[in-house]
Amino acid sequence: DAGITQSPRYKITETGRQVTLMCHQTWSHSYMFWYRQDLGHGLRLIYYSAAADITDKGEVPDGYVVSRSKTENFPLTLESATRSQTSVYFCASCRDSFTEAFFGQGTRLTVV
Amino acid sequence: AQKITQTQPGMFVQEKEAVTLDCTYDTSDPSYGLFWYKQPSSGEMIFLIYQGSYDQQNATEGRYSLNFQKARKSANLVISASQLGDSAMYFCAMRDFTGNQFYFGTGTSLTVIP
Description:
The structure holds two protein chains of two kinds.
Chain A lengths: L3 E4 L2 E4 L5 E7 L5 E8 L3 E10 L2 E4 L6 E3 L9 E3 L8 E8 L7 E2 L3 E5 L1
Parallel strand pairs in A: 2-11
Antiparallel strand pairs in A: 1-3, 3-8, 4-5, 4-9, 5-6, 7-8, 9-10, 9-11
Chain B lengths: L2 E3 L4 E5 L4 E3 L2 E3 L5 E8 L6 E7 L7 E2 L2 E6 L4 E6 L8 E9 L5 E3 L3 E6 L1
């Protein structure tokens, strides 16, 4: 299917475990982003990528790792999950600097 | 540092009336873009409208228009003839064209009353 997809949609994990959230887009968009959405905070940027093999930190990168070996994939890894990382995570992509971002459906992550 | 401020956590509007959702931004970059997104209760993020910093005219998309006041650094969203389906969270966002980061505000929850 064309578009941007995230997997899994829902995930429950235990404190201390490593977990990876997947993001795949079929448009060959250059830019990709990871956000977390929490009540009262809106969407906060975790990491972003301008192209394959280029990533940079956003506002709240601590505890997260990203990679982008292929243009279409941008996985987000929580190295050692904490309860404060319970959130809804959104992946987004956009073609260039001047266009809107398209969002995935979101992943609801619960850390217990 | 860039920043987006949405000062209205919640708004109510009567069906068929117009409503303005406020957004102010802070940037020292002369080149940037402003966006509005809608997030219904189902959770997806839906792009509504875009305004470039060099655009002379306010952007419009159907019932949505963006009231862009560059000197005041405001980018308010105006929804005309509100419908029940407009009930949702609305997020203002800014993208600077050099840093490439995409910043979002905390959102405004809009409820349309029949």
